[in-house]
Structures are given as structure tokens and as C-alpha cells.
Write a structure and sequence with these properties.
Helix content: 10-25%
Shape: globular
Order of helices and strands: H
Distance between the termini: 36 Å
Number of helices: 1
Structural class: mainly alpha
Radius of gyration: 13 Å
Largest sheet: none
Strand content: under 5%
Number of strands: 0
Length: 41
């Protein structure tokens, strides 16, 4: 049984440069619980 679901939660996938996208979120007044990125190595 999967109990990891939150009622009313929102998941948003944003593709782009992490620093630029975080600046956009801050400018929009959006707060987040986590940011997961895959830096190029």
C-alpha cells in the first residue's frame, strides 16, 4: 500500500538552468519544499 500521497499537493516539473529557474520562482513569490536537480558532470 502506498501511503506517500498528500491531499491537495502539487507537483511541478521545470526544465532549465536551476539558478535561473529558482530566481523566477522567488520573483513570483513561490515557496517550495524541495528542489531536485541533475547537474551535468
Amino acid at each position: 500500500m502506498n501511503n506517500n500521497k498528500k491531499k491537495g499537493g502539487v507537483c511541478r516539473l521545470i526544465q532549465g538552468d536551476a539558478l535561473e529557474e529558482m530566481d523566477k520562482l522567488i520573483a513570483e513569490g513561490i515557496t517550495v519544499d524541495a528542489i531536485i536537480c541533475d547537474p551535468p558532470y
